[in-house]
Amino acid sequence: MVSRTCLRPGLFLGLLIWSMTASAAALQVQLDQHALVLGEALAVSVHGDNLGVPLESLDLAALQTDFDIYTRSTDRQTRVVHDHTQVSETLSMLLYPLRPGQLLIPALHLAGHSSAPIPVAVAASGGDTPPVLFKLSLHPQTLMTRQVARLTLEIADDGSLQWSPIKLSEPAGVYLRELAAQENTQQQDGVTRTLHQQSWALMPLKPGKVTLTLPMAAALKFGTRLRYALPMLTFDTASAPAYLPVYVPIGKLSASMQPLVDELRLNQPASWVIQVRGTGLSAAGLVQLLPPLPDTEALHFYPAQVSLLADTDKQLIQTWQVSIPFVPLRTGELTLPERVLAYYDPDRGLQTYVLAAQRVTVVNPLWASLRRIGILSVVGLVLVLGMYWVGKTARRWLIRRASLHRVSNASDWQQLKQAVLAFDWGDSTFGCASLQRWLVVFAMRYGQDATLANALFGLEAGCYSSAQSQIDLPTVRLAVWRVLRAVKRQPILAVQ
User: What CATH code is assigned to 133-238?
Assistant: First the structure.
């Protein structure tokens, strides 16, 4: 049997240890500031000694009502004092307020220990932190499944903030595609603001209500990180008509055909290119929207090749290119059939876009080559004849010019006589031995000329008459030169 006097010292020691542990246990919360501006960070530390449970298990759900927890870390220190283990833990957090106003760091509870609530004042702007406005919109606001809308986040500030792109995660049953961002300056209420726009193409895949929750928006100002809560958006999605195939796009659609070359060649491949513009399009859907064409006796078609034009990847309305290879099997006028694209307009119902039939001309490449050779031959012959005519004309001009030069430079009667007898218009000389015979041949070819006859009579007198001194050589020479020069373009009138 154990004596009661033996139990008392042990019981007393246990109560003493429990009291020491209980008195040492505490939960304390400290803030680096009690008033800040929306977007700025708030450093919070939670300290506890001998809590009995890890501080990491602290429930922070109440804190996340007004604050976003950006970072958190725990520091744990253990030491032994008088054979008793002392545990000290500190939870450090960086918080960002979700809204302006009088907020509260709520009382935190862990293992029977609690902290006191701490008020925090959050201003909308102030100091170096400018006011920031956020707007989240959806157009159109009423959607049906597979209909594409533009989701736009608009941030307005004073232009001093550098914003990081928002990365959205797709909610269940919603497809998102990021679009090109935009930035511009506008006047709002007499204040110049910089508008940052980030947009997404949104497509609900199932009916019902959808709530979009965006992550915190992050910005930098002079190296200081600022973070803001973004608004939420809720919209309803109606079901698409049950009869509508899934590959038929919902929304307006347009299409066009690229013109083909003027002439196609027999049995040689060509490509028929169709460009389709719209929303909610895909390569697999376009293959079904434009089914393969059956072969005919004049045309053989291959499967279409579908690709997205790269410059429309970040646009709401995209352009897809459908290339249909084909081979013409006969020559003549052929017709590419019309193509009909179906789409569903939420305002007008099921619609179709018709691409009219296109006529093409097919030629045999052999005959085309022969025709080309014939045309080139004719052109070559014309060029050769033209060059021959130009050369001959130039030669005649040079010969005639040299003959006129000899006439004008004759220094005596004999030189002038020889220059006249040897005169050549480019065809040949008359081949006459006397001036009288030369004058006869001239008259037969170019017609009678009294001035030339009188000048040649004077030339004969100068050569053979004893009265040479009475006849003026320059006058006769000039008269002959003028007549010969004047007949340079006159045709031959008669030849015997």
Answer: 2.60.40.10
